[in-house]
Amino acid sequence: MKDFRNLKVWQRSHELALFVYKVTLSFPRDEIYGLISQLRRAASSIPANIAEGCGCNGNREFTRFLGIALRSASETEYHLLLARDLE
Fold first, then answer.
1. Mean pLDDT to the nearest integer, 46-55
2. CA 20 to 30 Å from 12, out of 6, 50, 53, 85?
3. DSSP-derived 3-state class of residue 34
4. What is the total count of domains within the chain?
């Protein structure tokens, strides 16, 4: 079992999740169940899946969780682009 906190990718994704939580505080209240929720869930899913993968036995399972984290990163990127374009 690996200590996920020592992984640079986990550290950076944790920083991103914290950033997303902070920046969404300034979003309109009518987005609380829309874009805010989607963005926060996608962003927090990245480090969560990396951490979960570190608890697995074997590289195959770890790789599977990294793939899920990567898909969540793509989703987060899109939601940030959408938020930017909506101003």
1. 96
2. 85
3. coil
4. 1
| CATH number of the domain residue 47 falls in | 1.20.1440.60
pTM of the model: 0.93
Residues 6+ apart with CB under 8 A from 17: 40, 43, 44, 46, 47
Residue 8: strand, helix, or coil: helix
pLDDT surpasses 90 at 58 = no
Please report which helix (H) or strand (E) contains residue 83, including its range: helix 59-86
Angle between helices 8-23 and 59-86 (to 10 degrees): 30
Report CA 23 to chain centroid distance, whole Å.
14
Range of the domain at 57: 4-86
The answer to whether the CB of 45 falls within 8 A of the CB of 72 is yes
What's the whole-number mean pLDDT along residues 11-30? Answer: 97
